[in-house]
Specification:
BirA Bifunctional Protein, domain 2, 7 helices, 11 strands
């Protein structure tokens, strides 16, 4: 079975969210899942669809750290020294689809479990929701996310529109420094392994992990049209709550 794949590299936060929204339209038409890798330049923060804009976000924006509202839910994610992915698929996909968000989380987790095994890091799959800072995603784990020695390693969120689902997630390769707030409940991949880890190393493991876990081949994604860039740049979108 084929999936589409694209690595869009380092782009600004508005493009990154706009591209994922365009992927939902693409998958609605084509019916084939898309695995996407991406990173943020400049360093940025994404906030959940329902999240309120706090004073700490305004303060960081004044220091040159932009933020953007995601189409997915959850809490704020710091994008500095991280690996970020999205998977866009139909709810009835035979490999990762499901009636509920948790159904899909559980299936998608198998691809990441295979990747973590390849990287040599010991992880536990969370079956419940933890308590933590109500602003920051990595302060506490949730269903079918991964922890290392009780500390959160990867965070994910999902949105569904009709028969199409978008899951976005982030793995911290190294711990963010100043001017970002400290996230006490997280662990970076480099900390978990006790060594430096490269972005390319993570990308290779995740792509191979999904290929092996689900028996899929990746083919290049065709050109994507109608990317709603201006929507995600607008104050109307980002300050809507």
């Amino acid at each position: 079975m084929n999936w589409f794949f694209i690595d869009t590299g380092f782009r600004d936060p508005y493009f990154n969210m706009a591209f994922d929204e365009a992927l939902m339209d693409f998958v609605r038409e084509r019916g084939v899942p898309v695995l996407r890798f991406f990173n943020f330049s400049p360093e940025s923060i994404t906030i959940g669809f329902h999240q309120r804009v706090g004073e700490w976000l305004i303060s960081l924006k004044e220091k040159g750290i932009p933020f953007v509202r995601r189409p997915t839910g959850g809490r704020a994610v710091i994008h500095s020294g991280d690996f970020t992915y999205s998977i866009t698929f139909t709810r009835d996909d035979p490999l990762i689809g499901g009636e509920t968000v948790l159904d899909s989380y559980k299936k998608i987790a198998e691809g990441f479990k295979r990747a973590f095994d390849m990287l040599g890091v010991q992880v536990d799959i969370v079956r419940g929701r933890g308590q933590g800072d109500d602003q920051l995603c990595f302060s506490a784990p949730s269903w079918y996310e991964f922890t290392h020695k009780g500390r959160k390693l990867i965070g994910s969120a999902q949105v569904r529109r009709g028969n199409v689902a978008l899951q976005q997630g982030t793995l911290m390769i190294k711990r963010p420094g100043e001017p970002f707030p400290e996230v006490k409940g997280m662990v970076s991949l480099s900390e978990a392994l006790g060594r430096g880890v490269t972005l390319d190393e993570v990308k290779e493991a995740v792509k191979k992990g999904f290929s092996e876990a689900f028996g899929i081949n990746f083919v290049p994604l065709p050109d994507i049209d109608n990317i709603p860039y201006e929507k995600y740049r607008s104050d109307e979108w980002n300050f809507k709550r």
